[in-house]
């Protein structure tokens, strides 16, 4: 197995990938953006790709949401949660916050540390970096373009960077969810605490279309754990929805909901059923149990056999 | 074939039965009440029974609704509509309305002619009869117990009774719907304009339980053409519903609705799919078509095959 | 105050009326049918009328349901529950069940004792009476037209009739609900455990019309305690619904549901809010409380004041 | 009047602001980010702020969605649509695409031109800029840090930059929607084609909570024109929704929907009713018309007056 991931090395995405059994010893290929990582999988250059899909503060990762919604089909086979905490690394010679005139990091990291920065280094000018790791690595240059960088503890540790402050993030406890994506293939067996991911184009722009879709879940007691709206890119007000539900396609109530969704929105995509990184076994009402579905189907079949 | 029907001879029920192909030449057995007629079918004494189920003015026929909802299963194989019109038959010697002091008929018929009676024979005392035919036949006795009877044109004609006034019903255009009931067996093939009849016990007494049942129909675009609430007989406020829907169990959207209902109310009864006596072919939305259901099922199956 | 009621004297309806405070000493006027009783109220000949509306075994009383749904508006001001138990009264000279050849009672009473009769007096011929009391009183005639009558304990006791068997009803524990009806006027104050009665014409014959009406209740957590379908009398398949809900029009969630219903079915009738004869105080979700409605209204008004 | 806007000068946001009547001659204050622009309004340093809220390709602008959802209340008073088209500006000395080794622009603009860049300047290294204007202005420096910048036609024209290619955006026809935000005050009169914007926290994490909110709209025939999910920032899976609806709070159906939403989610925010930049007058069903609401309210009030 070889793995693509949203690089460069040392990002939170690599941290996520390292949690996959076997990945520490496998080939890991950093990609410059999510599209590149997913293309490597689609084209066979990688067996799987680890990409971020959602941050508890910043929300959905648009690039990922859009990339897996279009193009050749892909499949999510697992998810990894990584707590997000940032350190302030500085170039040699910087010993106090007052000395920091120039700071760099990725725009998303900057957004997550802005309040800290406004309070603690109000005079520092911000320059965006293409990744948190890139901003950090530049501190090692002979003539660093900035005095400090906000980056992951991993990269600071690996490169032996000087850390002036740890935990500079505004939202303590932030978490990013990463997904491991492969070409479509075998779906992992249900574990009892599973998730399924769907792409649901709104069938047409009429009042209640979204409700009709959601009704397919509630009618079978299927919980949503994530819902993101994304523009189709065609015109303002045209959306598709990226949805995570609790449950596995091997469960009858999930299969029934998918069947209903397919009727209403035949271009939907099923992106996989996989073990949930956290969560409890869903409590399923008797009338939504596998047994209830099987019995109902058998009963109706017995009627239809009489025609 | 031999047929039981709600007697005595000459009632509207026999009129309905005579419309069944072959019934005019078959054995026809009048039963004293609906329960008796249906018991004859259940026990094999009759092959089928014709009973009234609904009148456009009086509403559902409780005896029938309750009798087919309980006990051994039965099946409705066809329905017959009979226009309801009444005549005022009188005993020999009566020539004008003023002479009528005593009048008799079945309570239901009386209810349907009450306004006429109040306006035209306000002084006449009413005695209930066990059927419209029984009230009419009594006029032939040596010393008739009443002066007039309200009955069907059929019985008046067959017995040569003197008819003083025709069309004494208050609601011109009233219609009664009759059903032909057999033991469960082969279900008639779909014709394109069919009906199915269901008995739906309310699953439990919680807000919205009825709505959850009805939602099974609306979610698949299945129309209700009749809904009757009936007490379960256990306590006030406990109901079951007797429902006719447009469509045949061989149609996917009907099968899907039945399956959903079975999950919510597993003691429901399916009483048959049969040709509708009137009505247009249902206009079915694309997403509720047989094709949409088949495609959705095949798609979900293709996913489940990958687990 | 004077009271009309569905007569004759000695029926269960009079038992119900006697439970109304003051009615025992007031003028009580028996009416020959429900329409007559209600007309007396509409025309001012009576201040109020007691009529049956529902039996736990037989279901809704069609005559009442239809009479209060049409014509000049009326108002329900209270409800009374009466347990229904029947006795077998016999004419002088009858000492055993075997001697009974002819039996009479009202058709509804007969329906409620039919199994007992089939098991205990299988050979007896049934003649319908216009009321249970009428069938019983005939036993006092010089030459009674029948040997036995099924009637209320009250009438047997009042007339000193010979009772051969008590409790001949098939369904032990049956209850009939009676309503006290006046011309529209002051609505009783809410007690905390109240009921409201509505007549809901189905707005049009389209799929989901009934669901849209019911949704007005569920959206506000308003429970239905009774729902009866009745034909409009115009053609098969046209219904109105007679509905009891838990709650009082003075409560915000009930008022909001009524307002929503009026928009969908402007010809609906409100027949009154009145204390429930039994039941617990409704448990109301916070978001359906009077406070939640008041605050929401005040908030929206504060916005509209800014336009 | 003075206006803050998401700067620097020459961005699409300034283009939007210039469409506001009077803004061309008013003081226009560029802000370094959306939060700063909105804070200026909240603190009185600006009377209004123009900020982007939604792009037809990239989706909702998270910074804006989050900033108006929290903190002191603000109000949207108008919206402006700006077509998004980009040009490739180059530093002096660059005459062909092959010469471009370094390119810079804002990350969002880069995302919108990525396919063009991959196809036409595959070898160019990308450096993120803090805005499209900043990347363009750097081309004027003595020693430009990059060879080319992707920017708006406006800034290229104003600064006399050399444009090598126009229309480098991947999605021709992309549009960004901007909103003009003030402190809460007078709400613009309805025009017949209006929009209202809401922030809806999901009341609690239970199945169907989102459906319950949406049901408030569909029950009154209120269309959604935009729905965006945003994380609350507390934990994964906690969302609020940012929603635009068709209609004005002065319209009864909108007021009723808001009232229902307030009951379910009392912390919702109303961010204003304002003229829609495009769209047709909503077709309103009779039962959702202002008249239907007024009549229903008057009817219920007439009942409550009788208590």
UniProtKB/TrEMBL annotation, chains A, B, C, D:
Ranges of residues in domain Prephenate dehydratase: 2-183
Lineage: Bacteria, Bacillati, Actinomycetota, Actinomycetes, Micrococcales
Pathway listed: Amino-acid biosynthesis; L-phenylalanine biosynthesis; phenylpyruvate from prephenate: step 1/1
Catalytic activity: prephenate + H(+) = 3-phenylpyruvate + CO2 + H2O
InterPro entries: ACT-like_dom_sf, ACT_dom, Chor_mutase/pphenate_deHydtase, Preph_deHydtase, Preph_deHydtase_CS
Identification of the protein by name: Prephenate dehydratase
Enzyme class per UniProt: lyase
PANTHER family per record: PREPHENATE DEHYDRATASE P PROTEIN, PREPHENATE DEHYDRATASE-RELATED
CDD domains assigned: ACT_CM-PDT, PBP2_Aa-PDT_like
Keywords: Amino-acid biosynthesis, Aromatic amino acid biosynthesis, Lyase, Phenylalanine biosynthesis
Entry keyword annotation includes Lyase: yes
Pfam families: ACT (PF01842), PDT (PF00800)
EC numbers: 4.2.1.51
Location of the ACT domain: 198-275
């Amino acid at each position: 197995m070889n793995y693509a991931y949203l690089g460069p090395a040392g990002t939170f995405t690599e941290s996520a990938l390292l949690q996959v059994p076997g990945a520490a010893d496998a080939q890991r290929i950093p990609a410059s953006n999510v599209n590149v990582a997913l293309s490597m999988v689609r084209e066979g250059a990688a067996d799987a790709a680890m990409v971020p899909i959602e941050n508890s503060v910043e929300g959905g990762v648009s690039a990922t949401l859009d990339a897996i919604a279009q193009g050749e089909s892909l499949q999510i086979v697992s998810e990894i949660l990584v707590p997000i905490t940032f350190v302030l690394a500085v170039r040699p010679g910087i010993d106090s916050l007052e000395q920091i005139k120039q700071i760099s990091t990725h725009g998303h990291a900057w957004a997550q540390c802005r309040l800290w920065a406004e309070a603690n280094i109000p005079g520092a000018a911000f320059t965006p970096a293409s990744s948190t790791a890139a901003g950090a690595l530049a501190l090692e240059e002979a003539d660093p373009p900035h005095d400090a960088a906000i980056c992951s503890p991993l990269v600071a540790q690996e490169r032996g960077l000087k850390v002036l402050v740890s935990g500079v993030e505004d939202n303590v406890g932030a978490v990013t969810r990463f997904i491991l994506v492969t070409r479509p293939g075998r779906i992992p067996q249900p574990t009892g605490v599973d998730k399924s991911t769907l792409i649901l184009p709104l069938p047409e722009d009429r009042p209640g279309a979204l409700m009709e879709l959601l009704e397919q879940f509630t009618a079978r007691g299927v919980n949503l754990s994530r819902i993101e709206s994304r523009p189709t890119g065609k015109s303002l007000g045209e959306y598709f929805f990226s949805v995570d539900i609790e449950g596995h396609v091997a469960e009858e109530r999930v299969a029934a909901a998918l069947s209903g969704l397919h009727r209403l929105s035949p271009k939907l995509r099923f992106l996989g059923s996989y073990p949930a990184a956290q969560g409890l076994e869903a409590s399923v009402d008797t009338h939504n149990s596998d047994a209830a579905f099987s019995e109902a189907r058998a009963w109706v079949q017995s009627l239809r056999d009489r025609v």
